[in-house]
Structures are given as structure tokens and as C-alpha cells.
Amino acid sequence: MTADRPLDPLPKAHLHLHFTGSMRHGTLVELADQHGIRLPDSLRESWPPQLLATDEKGWFRFQRLYDTARSVLKTEEDVRRLVLETVQDEAAEGSGWLEIQVDPSGYGTRFGGITAFTDLVLDAVRDASDRTGVGVAVIIAANRIRHPLDARTLARLAAQYADRGVVGFGLSNDERRGEPYTFARAFAIAERAGLASVPHGGELMGPESVTACLDWLHATRVGHGVRSVEDPALLDRIATQGVPLEVCPASNVSLGVYPDPAAVPLRKLFEAGVQIALGADDPLLFGVRLTGQYRIARWHGFTDEELAELARMSIRASCAPSDVKERLL
Ligand code: ADE
Ligand code: ZN
User: Fold this and answer.
1) According to the UniProt entry, where is the signal peptide (predicted)?
2) What distance in angstroms lies between residue 116's CA and the mean position of ligand 1's atoms?
């Protein structure tokens, strides 16, 4: 029997990674100590937290931990450190291209406004990319539990940076609140600027949410989207239209979308001809980075060649320029 091929060297693109959620655990602890911020035990000794957010309470627990993690980023240096370490970790795991998702409204007040914060992130991203050789782009994501007017402000911001490092516009947070149609005007602003439409959908809610992302937000990719498998017609639609799904298996288990890794419908999506881009979502809270997602696919019986095909799918689904895609494929 031949040994499994190592997964780190496989060239990949990482398309579903949140800014705050990408922080190294060690950095979270160090910054918290440096700034005198108390961390709950689940973010210190007993990390990673056992979220199992099958109910509303679980989701709020996740949100609270997320807010705590956000609060340790106080200075420009902290932001630059997070970005550089994240991109270094991506390089170590074979990502040749990273699209990192950030909601500037969560940081604006601390960093002189959403424009100043976006400038800082983009500058840090350019620096990290130069130092590591990983191509890095930014997705600006609106928070669906805030007012749709806030999303429009962020879409205008994203549009301003359309040819300067921002490649897409997203929509995150609790899908059970903030229906896609209420964000249609924000996404239209982003679409006119040539940005990809990459909302979360089909994670905490079923296939109807993915359909709404396609119909109202003209999603060019869907964050998660795994619950599309519950509607064969939708599955056929996304496979035929070639709308990639950013599938994050470890996140789905931590947040209670599926009871265990075996229940994530990876094989079903693959067999249906859906383009899959595996992602880590928030490794800080789920404890699994990008290669770990490929490892889960291997547990599902994906062969080395199928894993290589998943990696190629992620590159094809990315917003990377064609020369970068060609180099990685
Ligand atoms: N923001 C960060 N992680 C998220 C997730 N898994 N779903 C929705 N919004 C998020
Ligand atoms: Zn996400």
C-alpha cells in the first residue's frame, strides 16, 4: 500500500477565511495579556471551544467569543501581525492565493473609520503578500444583522477599492436574520463595480436561502451552501451554472450544522458536479486550518487525485488573475 500524498504541498486557493477568525491562538492569548483583556477559559486553557451551536444559544456563544477575539486587536501593529501570520500560515499550507473576508464596521471606531481601517488592512495584505509570495485579496463583508443601509455604505467602500485589492462583496453573520433580498441594493452597487458576489447562505438555513442568494444577490460563489443538497433542483442549478460553494467542514461541525464530519455532504456535492472550494472559516474558533479540511475530505474517501481536483477547483473558483491561476493549476 502506498502512503497518502502529503496535503500541505498541494497548490490551493483559500476563499473562505474571516479576518478575526484567522488569528493564531497563541497571538490571541499574547495580545489579550498585552492589552489586559480577560479571556474566557474556552479561549485560553481549554481551547478550541466546544461550540456545538445547534441552538440559538450556541450561535450567541460563538458570537461572544468572536467579539472577544476582535477586542484584542487594538493597534495598527496588532492588525499587521495578524495579517502577516495568517498569510505565513497559508503559505505553509500550500495556499498560493488567499481571499480574506473582513467587515470594517467591526473595527472602524478603533482605527479612525472604516476607510482608514480598510487602507490599513490592504497595506498589511500587500506587505504580507510581498514577503511570502502568496497572492492575497480582500473581500469586504457586510453584517446581515445590521441595517441594509450599513451594507450599502460598505458596498460603496468596497467599490472604491475594486481595482486596489478588494475583489468581492460578502454577507456574513446569522442567516436566520437579515434576508438576502434586503441587501439586493448593496450587492448591486458591488456588482456594478465588478466585484464578485460571495454571500453566506445554506449554512444555518436550508436551500431556500441559497436560492435567494442566487436570485437577489447574483451570487457568483456561495459561502457554505452545503444545505443545497436538500433540494435536488437547486443542486442541479448550481452544478449547471458552475456556482462554486465554499465548503467549510470543520466549521459546519463546530456550529452544529452537521453532527459529525462524516455527515458533511462532501461526496454528494462532488458527485453532483458542484465546484467546491474548501475553506476554514474561523480556525481560531474551530481549531482546524485549511489542510485540515482536505484531511476531512480524505476521511470521506477522497483519493489523492480527487483531493488534487478539489484543490484545482478552489483555484478555478478564485478571483485570482488568470496568470496566477495558470501558475497554480
Ligand atoms: N462570520 C464568521 N463565521 C461565520 C459563519 N460561519 N457564518 C456566518 N457568519 C460568519
Ligand atoms: Zn464564514
Assistant:
1) none
2) 24
